[in-house]
Amino acid sequence: MRGVLAGVVVVQHHEPYGNISVDLPAFPAQFVGKSVRDPFKVGQDIDAVSRASITTLSATRAIRNSSRRMATRYLTPQ
């Protein structure tokens, strides 16, 4: 209830070019403890997945947008 991510679970993901994926444990683990106010920028505060730049950008954007929507809906501003 402080706007900090407790975890990220990849429920479903399909990578068309092999096992270059965001569902490996290291990718979602880096979001634990991030504030919804953080920038969520790949290459800055989010590590990229080698050979999966579009997937990494899309997954990061989805996590950022959904966490901010939840914060807007359920948390009171500081």
Give the secondary structure arrangement, pairings included.
Elements: H1 26-29, H2 53-74
Question: Short description, anyone?
Answer:
The chain has 78 residues and is mostly helical. The chain has two helices and no strands.
Per DSSP, the total helix count is 2
Instruction: Report the strand count.
Output: 0
SSE order in H/E notation? HH
Biggest sheet layout? none
Structural class designation:
mainly alpha
**How much is the radius of gyration in Å?**
13 Å
Features:
mainly alpha
What does this entry look like structurally?
With 78 residues, the chain is an all-alpha fold. The protein has 2 helices and no strands. It has helices at 26-29, 53-74. The longest helix is centred in the last third of the chain and has 22 residues, at 53-74. The chain is elongated, with a radius of gyration of 13 Å.
